[in-house]
């Protein structure tokens, strides 16, 4: 069971009205909203593919935009942590190295996911009509679904522990929630894209 009293005490360190904290929350929420809206618009209209001359060029441009937005999000996350107090009981080597280990595991999941999917597979290539031959089931997908998202969440969690930051922990929860919502929208839509692909192959 969740210790509500402990959570109230923990988040008593967080000023949710701080401008930096609010900007971090908005940047976290905006990113998955942005790429889902743009990718679905592309899937319906092929407008980006027409503008950039090919689906691959359009996908690479969207991927570059997502990477820039993720850098902005990480910067806002870090600045929000710096502007708020640390939890003194956690400001020790044990917590620091625990956070470092969690971040390292998250980094492994993110990098291995990228290597397994490639650039277009990672950055919504299927919405551009760039479909993979088959579903990737090798590591890290053999360990958990959506390893890119949960690896990223683990990185933020580890980063928060390394800074002994209650604000960071709360922002990490926002990251997890935003990814959970993204998965609920992306999963069925992506499955439908590949279902149509398989139906088209069988009808030939």
From TrEMBL:
GO molecular function: phosphatidyl-N-methylethanolamine N-methyltransferase activity; phosphatidylethanolamine N-methyltransferase activity
Membrane topology designation: Multi-pass membrane protein
Broad class of the protein's primary localization: endoplasmic reticulum
Gene Ontology biological process: methylation; phosphatidylcholine biosynthetic process
Gene3D superfamilies given in the database record: 1.20.120.1630
TM region positions: 20-39, 94-119, 167-187
Subcellular location: Endoplasmic reticulum membrane
Catalysis: reaction(s): 1,2-di-(9Z,12Z-octadecadienoyl)-sn-glycero-3-phospho-N,N-dimethylethanolamine + S-adenosyl-L-methionine = 1,2-di-(9Z,12Z-octadecadienoyl)-sn-glycero-3-phosphocholine + S-adenosyl-L-homocysteine + H(+); 1,2-di-(9Z,12Z,15Z-octadecatrienoyl)-sn-glycero-3-phosphoethanolamine + S-adenosyl-L-methionine = 1,2-di-(9Z,12Z,15Z-octadecatrienoyl)-sn-glycero-3-phospho-N-methylethanolamine + S-adenosyl-L-homocysteine + H(+); 1-hexadecanoyl-2-(4Z,7Z,10Z,13Z,16Z,19Z-docosahexaenoyl)-sn-glycero-3-phosphoethanolamine + S-adenosyl-L-methionine = 1-hexadecanoyl-2-(4Z,7Z,10Z,13Z,16Z,19Z-docosahexaenoyl)-sn-glycero-3-phospho-N-methylethanolamine + S-adenosyl-L-homocysteine + H(+); 1,2-di-(9Z-octadecenoyl)-sn-glycero-3-phospho-N-methylethanolamine + S-adenosyl-L-methionine = 1,2-di-(9Z-octadecenoyl)-sn-glycero-3-phospho-N,N-dimethylethanolamine + S-adenosyl-L-homocysteine + H(+)
Membrane found in the keyword field: yes
Protein name (database record): Phosphatidylethanolamine N-methyltransferase
Taxonomic source organism: Sylvia borin (Garden warbler)
């Amino acid at each position: 069971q969740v210790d509500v009293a402990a959570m109230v005490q923990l988040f008593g360190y967080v000023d949710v009205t701080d401008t930096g904290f609010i900007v971090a929350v908005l940047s976290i929420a905006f990113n998955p909203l942005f790429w889902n809206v743009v990718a679905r618009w592309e899937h319906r209209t092929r407008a980006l593919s027409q503008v950039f001359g090919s689906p691959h060029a359009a996908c690479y441009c969207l991927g570059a935009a997502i990477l820039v937005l993720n850098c902005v999000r990480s910067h806002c996350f870090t600045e929000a942590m710096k502007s708020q107090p640390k939890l003194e009981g956690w400001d020790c080597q044990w917590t620091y190295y625990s956070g470092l280990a969690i971040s390292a595991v998250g980094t492994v999941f993110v990098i291995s996911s990228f290597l397994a999917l490639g650039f277009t597979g990672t950055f919504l290539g299927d919405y551009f009509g760039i479909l993979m031959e088959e579903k990737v089931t090798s590591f890290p997908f053999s360990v958990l679904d959506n390893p890119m998202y949960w690896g990223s969440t683990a990185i933020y969690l580890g980063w928060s522990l390394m800074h002994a930051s209650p604000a960071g922990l709360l922002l990490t929860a926002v990251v997890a929630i935003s990814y959970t919502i993204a998965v609920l929208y992306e999963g069925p839509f992506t499955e439908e894209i590949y279902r149509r692909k398989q139906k088209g192959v069988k009808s030939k």
